[in-house]
Amino acid sequence: MTTGIVPVTLFISMDEFAYELWEIIKMAPDGTGNRRYRYITVIRNDAPAQYSTDLGLAVKGEEGIAIPSMLEHTVGELIDIADELRNVAPAPKRPTKQNLVDGYFDIMEQQNRARHGAGPHIYS
Fold this sequence. Notes:
- The chain is 23% helix and 35% strand.
- It has 124 residues and is of the alpha+beta class.
- A four-stranded antiparallel sheet has the order 3-2-1-4, with helices on one face.
């Protein structure tokens, strides 16, 4: 997100070029639960200005979205991209190994099972 104090704007145009779009999950000011907020930074009078809107209750497990644009996309394009990203199922998380050697042998075992079927294998 843009750092420092950024002036707020109360309106944006869908045809206006945007600097960035963020959707974040945070607690509602009245403490009623987690909500999704959208922040769009545009340039007004050669300075950043930020527009924000409440998108409603956040779904459990939902993550935020960050889309840098650097004035390459319009507000409408960034909103379309964010809507599309939100509706795509997240990629499954890969398990992490504590060291590279264990990870290497796990990958080799998976490849051997894929080629030769289940069962013990001896590496040569």
